Amino acid sequence: MTNPNDPYNQGGYNQGGQPQQPGYPQQPGHPQQGGYPQQGGYPQQGGYPQQGGYPPAAPPLSQSELNAPARPKSVDTAFMLWLVAAGIGILSNVITFVISSDIESQTGVASGSGGTIVSLIFAVLWIVVVMQMRKGANWARILLTVLGGLSIIGNLLSLALVGILLSLGAFGVISLLFVVVSLAVVIGAIVFMFKSDSNYYFKAS
């Protein structure tokens, strides 16, 4: 039986016989810390915006393309002149088709739509060859030289009919101008194709 006045009985004993620790009294000057406030964590990154992917890489250049010389201005000039000649040929054929009846009455030579269609197809093929010439194809340069020579002969023959062309009125005058301009353009294109820098370009391509 315990004495309530026994000083050793303060706080009592626990069942294991060990004195029960009353604990340290809470300091009045220091508020009880509830531990560090719980971090909410860093805000979750939405991640980098998803890239749509890099564009596909360009195919590597071949050795011939790497060693290919720069295209000289003379070739570009010849290219433009050939395109002008092709455009003149197309317009000339359209005008010829329009005034075909007058030409037939003046010369007695029929100029039907069939010849105009063939000439338009020829002009398209001409442009294809001109594109190859610009890329440095020497066969295209030779072919254009042959075709240009035939065109020069045809334009010279047309000039021999200048009287008939002028008698056809406005369309005849326009046709005559086309003949003169086409003659000059074709000659200029051939000259620019065979300049010294052009020759080097075609040999190296």
TrEMBL record:
TM region positions: 79-99, 111-130, 142-166, 172-194
Disordered: annotated span: 1-68
Entry keyword set: Membrane, Transmembrane, Transmembrane helix
Keyword Membrane: yes
Composition bias type Low complexity, residue spans: 7-55
Name recorded for this polypeptide: Uncharacterized protein
